[in-house]
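Appendix B, example 12.
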Amino acid sequence: MDNKLFREYQFKFYLNAGHSVSFQGQKGDTHPHTWEFLIVILIRRENFREYHVFEKAIENCFAKYQNGVLNDIEPFDTIIPTLENIVDCFGQSIRRIIGEMEGILCRIEGSETPTRRYNITYEEEPEYLEEIERFSEKSVSEILDLLLDSILDSQKELHESIS
């Protein structure tokens, strides 16, 4: 996608937390991980935000899990905290957070080890495409407004210089 109307930001976050998973009725041992998350977001080019604004909001999302056992913390007290479920849940939360900041979550990637990665790409989902269309229309509308204001100002200056 030509990104002239948008700015793309990438962030990496780390979460130190333990978990245990159950397979075929057997509960595994609780063990720690340093989870790594890559977050990719778009914002409208004219809606500049400093990095720390996004970082703080996303760090707050992870804060209650930091140094804990995921199985003991909602929603993972009822959902098995597999890598896939963790990325799915955090993706939904971060998507909401970024949306409230007038941004769009493009992708979230999570890993529990350097060799295991789970990715969710939202770019093909109808909701994502609707957000892009809405943001694009708003950007084009604002550009047209600025252009029309400039033309009207030029006309006014020309009329005043003739008078």
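The two ends are 49 Å apart (CA to CA). The chain has a mean pLDDT of 84.
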